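Figure 3 (text version): structure tokens given as input.
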């Protein structure tokens, strides 16, 4: 009989080649919170998060932790803390992320705890993630309807990038002082051999695109989780 872990491993190969591979995209704040929770805790810690599905992308806008009892090897939510959170959550149906840390140990799925927890989930899908202090991350997407499917999925942190106005001003000054723009006819003469120059009517020059067309004031970069956190350590 094929085990759950063997099934997941086989599906990893398929997910690497499928078109529009599912991705998990963290906003910067919740990603930072998970890494800080992990680094501040000497042992395991777990939490949940909200998920917004957009096509094959699963966006994570918010994460949180609840009352829990932990040690070096496990972390368990206690009491009615989850029920109380659900009561005050605007949309409990979005609680579709579960995550936990392995301190500074390897990231893997526990066959006696993680896999049974995933199997008991009642929703249409669930995203599960395990991380450690070194920035390692293992993430899986489990679909329960209309059929059962498990995929290992990549995790990215959405990092906002803003135009550096100081560098932009410097580049503008450098271009203005050092770059000479040639007329179209002159450029043609320089490109062709002198004996074969045949000047034709220069077509109307298209209006150049604005700087903002190429680099908007605010844009986003997708940074893999490992690259984002592998060198980030708390004092």
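Below: residues designed for each position.
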């Amino acid at each position: 009989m094929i085990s759950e872990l063997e099934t997941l491993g086989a599906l990893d190969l398929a997910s690497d080649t499928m078109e529009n591979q599912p991705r998990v995209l963290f906003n910067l704040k919740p990603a930072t919170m998970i890494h800080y929770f992990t680094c501040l805790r000497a042992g395991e810690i777990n939490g949940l998060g909200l998920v917004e599905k957009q096509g094959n992308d699963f966006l994570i806008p918010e994460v949180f932790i609840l009352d829990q009892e932990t040690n070096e090897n496990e972390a368990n939510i206690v009491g009615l803390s989850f029920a109380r959170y659900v009561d005050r959550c605007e949309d409990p149906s979005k609680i579709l992320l579960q995550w936990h840390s392995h301190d500074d140990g390897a990231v893997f799925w526990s066959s006696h705890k993680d896999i049974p927890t995933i199997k008991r989930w009642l929703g249409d899908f669930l995203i599960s993630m395990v991380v450690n202090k070194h920035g390692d991350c293992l993430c899986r997407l489990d679909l329960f309807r209309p059929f059962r499917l498990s995929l290992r999925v990549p995790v990215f942190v959405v990092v906002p990038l803003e135009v550096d106005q100081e560098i932009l001003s410097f580049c503008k000054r450098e271009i203005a002082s050092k770059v000479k723009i040639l007329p179209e006819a002159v450029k043609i003469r320089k490109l062709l051999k002198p004996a074969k120059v045949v000047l034709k009517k220069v077509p109307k020059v298209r209006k150049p695109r604005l700087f903002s067309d190429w680099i908007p004031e605010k844009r986003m970069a997708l940074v893999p989780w490992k690259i984002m956190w592998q060198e980030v350590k708390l004092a």
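Confidence is low (pLDDT under 50) at residues 1-16.
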